[in-house]
């Protein structure tokens, strides 16, 4: 059990006038008396609890009955913890045992206001992919324990491959989970889509001491397809799209320029796939200024879509 749980339990016992002491705290959590004494000192000195010891009752009481813990009735803390639980569920992690435990602990550790917030906070993500909580647990264990993980991975073409990877970072991007890892098969850093990992098992082998060049590559250009930028894309947004994009953060190195027609966004791009989808999202209110390759790709995609719809009409 965590320090927070032990401290909160002790606080509740004091409030109930049960006159707890270090031995009763240790017995409840099956910890050492020395640990319980440190918990009580933490409550008194760090959380400023007005603790006093009653020698006749051999336990602690509060000299001020109005004392509450800093996080106990704070709307901000209640909101943040509620958001944490909500986001975990909406991000496809609702089946993780730790998330279910958090739900139970929040409802008992905070206040009745927690229940109100649960019903009134909504986190809506699109294209969320639920993932196997056992696989996710193996990946996080590999990171924490600095151990490699054996995975069975299914590609977009439906091909399975067995790999041993050294997990470096877990990433949630647009509702999907990815694993950045050093792949022994490819002898390079690779980004794995967690939903396509069919099996994962932590090995007893330690992480390599010489990791592949890593995460900064993910940050150099727009989207999940990281790497050195091919170009700086310039996109003109007009009408309501300009107002929307004005307040959006697409990349750390983006620049926004006000122009007569609306707003011009410039950002580094290493792969045209995702930026093309993003541009098409805004329809006629988005126009590629440069580079020509990206402009051509968007035009080709629009023509391809038109051929599969009724927009072009039917032959006579």
What does this structure look like?
- With 316 residues, the protein is an alpha+beta fold.
- It folds into four domains: 3-62, Arc Repressor Mutant, subunit A; 75-120, no CATH class; 133-212, SH3 type barrels (Roll); 231-307, Alpha-Beta Plaits (2-Layer Sandwich).
- The protein is built from eleven helices and eleven strands.
- The protein has helices at residues 3-15, 22-29, 33-46, 75-93, 97-109, 113-120, 133-145, 216-219, 239-246, 272-280, 292-307; strands at residues 51-54, 59-62, 147-154, 160-173, 176-183, 188-193, 197-206, 231-238, 255-259, 262-269, 286-290.
- The strands form three sheets. A five-stranded antiparallel beta sheet has the order 6-5-4-3-7, covered by helices on one side. A four-stranded antiparallel beta sheet has the order 9-10-8-11. A two-stranded antiparallel sheet has the order 1-2.
- Helix 4 packs antiparallel against helix 5.
- The longest helix has 19 residues, at 75-93.
- It is elongated.
- The mean pLDDT is 83.
Strand order of the largest sheet: 6-5-4-3-7
Question: Helix count, per DSSP?
Answer: 11
Percent of residues in helical segments? 25-40%
Derived from helix and strand composition plus strand pairing, the structural class reads alpha+beta
The share of residues in extended strands comes to 25-35%
The count of β-strands is 11
The count of domains is 4
- Would you state the CATH class of the largest domain? Mainly Beta
CA-CA gap between termini:
75 Å
Rounded average pLDDT: 83
* CATH overall fold name of the largest domain: SH3 type barrels
Q: What is the assembly state of the chains in this entry?
A: single chain
CATH architecture title of the largest domain? Roll
